[in-house]
Amino acid sequence: MQTSHFDAISRELGLPVSQVEATARLLSDGATVPFIARYRKEATGLLDEVAIAAIRDRLEQLVALDKRRVSIVGSLQERDLLCDELSARLNAAKSLSELEDIYLPYRPKRRTRASIAREKGLEPLAQKLLKDNTCDLLAEAASFLDSEKGVHSVEEALCGARDIIAEWVNEDQKARCLVRRFWLERSFFDCIAQKGKEADGAKYKDYFDWREPVNKTPSHRILAMLRGEKEGFLNLEIAPEPQEIVKELESMFVTGKSPAAEQVRLAVQDSYKRLLAPSMETELRQLVKRRADAEAIAVFAANLRQLLLAPLFGHKRVLAVDPGFRTGCKIVCLDETGKLLHTDVIYPHTESGANASGAAGAAARVLKLCQQYKIDAIAIGNGTAGRETEAFIGKALSASSCPDKKIQVFMVNESGASIYSASAAAREEFPDQDITVRGAVSIGRRLMDPLAELVKIDPKSIGVGQYQHDVDQGDLKKSLDDVVVSCVNTVGVEVNSASCQLLSYVSGLGPQLAANILKWRSENGSFQSREQLRKVPRMGPKAFEQAAGFLRIAGASNPLDASAVHPESYSVVDSMARDLGCSVADLTVSESLRKRIEVRRYVTDKVGLPTLNDILSELSRPGRDPREIMESVQFAAGVNTPADLKPGMKLPGIVTNVTAFGAFVDIGVHQDGLVHVSQLSDNFVKDPSQVVKVQQKVNVTVVSVDLERKRIALSMRSGK
Known about the structure:
Largest sheet: 5 strands, mixed
CATH class of the largest domain: Mainly Alpha
Shape: globular
Number of domains: 5
CATH architecture of the largest domain: Orthogonal Bundle
């Protein structure tokens, strides 16, 4: 670990070097981001997960830069090209582009026009033209005529010399920095439709004649244009106006107005057009793509966090429905832990069925199941027949003469449920059930605990991003995994009921240890204490340290085992209880006792006020879930399809996705509508996430409906 990296990261992130260094050392020792943020606040100076992850990511980038530097140095040494001056320049390079610019003249090349000219012995002529503008051009060129080497005329000699000069200009570090600056600051996207592809590419018609400065183009438009180009519907060019760049380049290499100077001018122009411009376009495309990817991934990550931490219904009994028309509605009954108790199928939208006869029989069946299994809520998937099934269920419940209790009805976003139902994990849990039953189980569990169920699905399948299939998949996976890990550890995991997938995201565990925990639980029964976790195979001291604070054991003899207090701090809490003459359990229930604790008495060289304050906070609400309780959303009656919509309609809805250009809202018509960023608020809003979040209830007004293009425009402005 290079200490010079700490200074660089400190400057870039605006953090004290001591915080960067402490965080870096904890990371190198195998500590996870959630663990460091939660249990090492004294060491890092209260850095949050965002700052810790930023340090981690920048360290990885600098390490990659160092690896490339070592590779370049090794290549130069092998070819005996490394000197002290070159070595110093390579070591001083602060970015990959700077490093590659320095290395470019020494990089092994394929045979080029310049190398062919050198083989013909024309390099001295190129040097003469570049350095001596007063030379006799024709005489100098004539002196290099050599039929054996293939130089038969003065023009051939001058052409070869220009090729060599063009390569020198291309490889000049100052010239590349100049050109790069122009390209970064003054480039434009120029986009037109592919001739003859206008009809097939109608979804890209906004870009059929589009011009926009690169540095002002938002990420979603960049990704849209790149996708249209990739699919063959758009022609996309990225470049600045060349005249001023070429003029600046000429001023660097051309002096005077002699014939020799004119040859250099021609070489510079050729260098820009043939070498520099294509190189810069490739570099700029990669750069803007990375930036667009980063913004899109950030949007996806923010949405995913909101979705994973969305309100939950809690551990109550649920009847879940996977709706359908012709094939019927699959029904499952789940107990408080999500265990499958019963499966059934009803046909409320047809006049016949295997287990029920029409809507009347289906209603009777639902009411009987609700009473038999003491159901607290009904979860209905929001896919095909979802609204119709919701109306049927609502009618059945309202017609019930004497319901035992008020049963709530929820529409549940089923994005990704079908993927889970066909997964190996679902087949392993329900080997004797078909995918529709597994899907219904997933819908019900998603109501009870969205986080616990959604971690079983690839985040990309949940449908809360923008252009997720176009961005760098490695970067996307890393970012989304970070979000899932953060959310899981923020909430905490009940070790005796958690799935293998959920446990695998706990700090310090992973798939193998998660599987070992489940195996131990199956063979030995429920864990009675956190200390028992040490008995799990491969649960070494480091893994236990990283994981224990995030694992909960409800009903344990030590109440701290159900809290976020780390076992390493149990002795501190024991001391607090002992000093007050009470038990630890008493501290968790008595506010008056907690108020008597003099926190500063327990500060040591290892335990500071941040940790002590966290302990007191946790004692006041041990193991409390930070998420809110879910409330149902009632969609407008009689509005079930896009054809039912009319401009001016005011409808309730729920936000399903937030993007850089607006928010998508489910209004119960099987097609989300878009509230453009300009329609989110009466006041100007640049960032939609400042106004809405995923799963938020909103009221919208229909602006327009395009049935052919399947687009619904909505507004949240008060004037609409």
